[in-house]
Amino acid sequence: MLHKGRDFVYIHRMDRGSIFEKNVPGTTEKLQKATVGIAGCGGLGSNAAVALVRAGVGHLILADHDVVEASNLNRQHYFQHDLGKKKVEALASYLRAINPDVELVLHDIELTPENMPGIYEEADLMIEAFDSADSKRWLIESWCVAFPERPIVAASGVSGCGKTESMHVHSSGNIHVCGDERSEMTMGLCAARVMMAASMEANVAIGLLTGERT
Amino acid sequence: MILVNNRDKVEWRDGMTVQDVLDAMGFDYALITVTLEGKLVPEHDYNTRTVPDGTKVGVFHLAHGG
């Protein structure tokens, strides 16, 4: 008869080992080695992070200086009990609940063109997940200057609802932009459309990291 | 001829800058990112960087929201 403790360890390992059982063959090992930077943990960043960790990405660098507010809950991966918590910490708890082995580096900090390269030095790829267009622009420019050979996947035009057919991926060199490139935040934001853009960002990233087409 | 976003053609002329291409396309978005042959052009270079004939130009519109 097995010792109770050993029994527990055995079952626990079996459970953890099965997380990626249904993954696309050949992708898990590549994603486990990858480090993805995510700039912003709001509607785009929180949902993209969940998709990436579920896919098997082994290392994430997350940065955001906000706390969770009620108005975030219409589209961001947070819950009532997170209100007032730091976004990076709340998000980290959900990512570890999906995969306890995921390695996370958290920065509760406002990103700037000056501090960004140091924070994301180890990242193989960047996910832009800001809400301000000005911030999107400086991040893309700063990333391309600091890491010209590494891809950046951004989102632009994720507002409103419906208009599913207008969502696309626009690529040039190492820059990939997901969204409709038109709709503005003043139209309001809807979970389905923001999450679609976040999933597009994650999917493009996974395609690049695994050598599949974006 | 210059090809913008793999779709739109702009007639090339000698000395044409990135800003001239944007003007010719009628882009009036406040925030954009531009690439020449896949390489980013910083905003402060739009008026000085010349665009050789046959260049592939990428113009991304950046909109608020996330």
User: What would CATH call the class of chain A?
Assistant: Alpha Beta
Derived structural class of chain B: alpha+beta
CATH topology of chain A: Rossmann fold
Low-confidence stretches of chain B: none
> Which two chains form the greatest contact, residue counts included?
A-B, 41 and 21 residues
Evaluate the radius of gyration of chain A.
Answer: 18 Å
Q: Estimate nothing, just give the exact number of structural domains of chain A.
A: 1
Tell how many strands the DSSP assignment of chain A holds: 7
Distance between the termini of chain B: 36 Å
Q: Which ranges of chain A are low-confidence, i.e. pLDDT below 50, for 5 or more consecutive residues?
A: 1-14
Q: CATH architecture of chain A, please?
A: 3-Layer(aba) Sandwich
Name the CATH superfamily assignment of chain A: NAD(P)-binding Rossmann-like Domain
Structure in words:
The complex is a heterodimer of chains A (214) and B (66). Chain A is of the alpha/beta class and 214 residues long. Chain A has helices at 4-17, 28-33, 43-55, 87-98, 116-119, 133-146, 191-210; strands spanning 35-39, 59-63, 103-107, 125-128, 152-155, 168-172, 175-179. Chain A has a 7-stranded mixed sheet with strand order 3-2-1-4-5-7-6, with helices on both faces. In chain A, helix 3 links the parallel strand 1 and strand 2. In chain A, helix 3 packs parallel to helix 4 (87-98). Chain B is of the alpha+beta class and 66 residues long. Chain B has one domain: Ubiquitin-like (UB roll). Chain B has a 5-stranded mixed sheet with strand order 2-1-5-3-4, covered by helices on one side. Chain B starts with a strand and ends in a 5-residue tail after the last strand. The mean pLDDT of chain B is 95. The A-B interface holds A 40, 42-45, 129-134, 136-137, 140-141, 144-145, 148, 154-159, 170, 172-175, 177, 179-186, 189, 194, 197 and B 5, 30-33, 35, 37-40, 42-43, 56, 58, 60-66.
